[in-house]
Amino acid sequence: FALSGRSAHGVRVLTIPRPAMSDQKERMVPADRSNWNAILKWSMAQQGDGTSSAPAREISEEDRRWLLDAMASGFIDEIKRMKDIIACISAGIEATHDAEEIDARVELMEELTDRVSGVDNGGDLHTLGGLEPLVRYVASSPHARLRAAAAEVLGTTVQNHPKAQEAALGCDAMGPLLRMAAGEGDDSPPTDAAEAESTTAAEGDASKGTKELVKARVKALFALSCLLRGCVRAQEAFQLGDGFALLKNCLRVDHPRLRTKALHLARHLATLDMRFMAACVDSGYVLAAAASLAGSLPRQLLVATEVGTDLSADAFTEEDIERGQVREAALRLMVDVARKVDFDAVPKAVDHLRSAIVVNAINAVGKAYVRFGREEKETYRDEMQLCAQLAKMFE
Fold first, then answer.
1. What is d(CA 305, CA 311) in angstroms, rounded to the nearest whole number?
2. 228 neighbors 265 (Cβ within 8 angstroms)
3. CB of 8 within 8 A of CB of 96?
4. What's the rounded mean pLDDT across residues 94-103?
5. What residues contact 29, with CB distance under 8 A and at least 6 apart?
6. pLDDT digits (tens, 9 = 90+) for 353-368
7. Average pLDDT over the chain, rounded to whole?
8. Most confidently modeled of 83-87, 117-121, 251-255, 317-321?
9. Are 349 and 276 a contacting pair, CB within 8 Å?
């Protein structure tokens, strides 16, 4: 696997050698399953149908070599492969690259994400020196796709892994992730990108760049969620870094996935303890959740209302499905706050939960449910029940 190296900063060509047979002391995992299928077929062919009394024949040297080679090629030295990937992506982090090289680096990081999903490999990544370059990508890569890919590797590495969480904090991962989630950083075009030939083309490129930036913010929130879960030190760093204000800003972006991620993270933080609950309420999360709830009704609702028909399953677009996820996340946040907040310790929660914006949002969603068809009512049953619970709490 070679990176092109044709960057504006003269990054040298980097190559990852083919995976080799593992040392027996290293962890090994199956690689190409086609080799195992070949071995199985060969083995069955040597056994016959099981009815013959003839003695088993001795394996020839040629067959022995083939069997050993097939088995060797079926394993990858996991540690060595991770080292190779880390070495390959560690150069030219702050450089602008051509499209081929960006694709290659993203593919390598996606492979690294798969490999660190195992708890053992997640802990090994820091030992191998892999966390520091990933944090540098998040902090300073000019390409949004590379920042997003690095954040996904970071999040997967630290997920449910205290040792990896501490290692990431030791590499100062919190600050860059917070800034990335806040939307800092541009998306530089590849160095070999053709000049836009028309205004339409330029606008299309701008739209694509905006989408990549939003995707990067979503991945940053994913990494933050994984870093914060169960890690007190990370939670304190998040609060010191003004993370609560950052999440509220994410809820103002008209992008369903970003809003959903932010709402889930806000809900998790609010239920940690009453100190974080107070911070969430003071930051206006209940009001922001209500605004997200009212602003995430299906776009086809207006059309259905005008013609006097129910919203059928066919009328729901992929965006409407994502908007449904926003609504459910917003309702779960408000319901959990209402259930778990100490109203004496956080009196502002009462005002927010009984505010006009919350009441109007619940009423708007209730009216929307009336327009849903039978199938959609069944699909969004949980959401409808959450809405009813919240309304009943403050009758």
1. 9
2. yes
3. yes
4. 95
5. 75, 76, 78
6. 999 999 999 988 888 8
7. 81
8. 83-87
9. no
The pLDDT tens digits of the residues spanning 176-216 come to: 999 999 999 999 999 987 644 444 444 445 455 688 999 99
Q: What is the pLDDT of residues 64-80, one digit of tens each?
A: 787 777 666 655 678 88
Instruction: Convert 104-114 to b/e letters by CB count within 10 Å (16 or more is b).
Output: bbbebbebbbe
Closest CA to 219 of 250, 188, 248, 252: 250
What are the angstrom distances between the C-alpha of 62 and each of 56, 66, 69?
17, 6, 11
Q: Tokens representing 66?
A: 């083939």
Burial (CB count <10 Å: 0-12, 13-18, 19+), residue 56: exposed
Rounded to whole angstroms, the maximal C-alpha distance in the chain is: 88
Instruction: Give the C-alpha separation, 259 to 256, whole Å.
Output: 5
pLDDT digits over 100-139, tens only?
999 999 999 999 999 888 766 667 888 899 999 999 999 9
Give the separation between CA 354 and CA 351, rounded to whole angstroms.
5
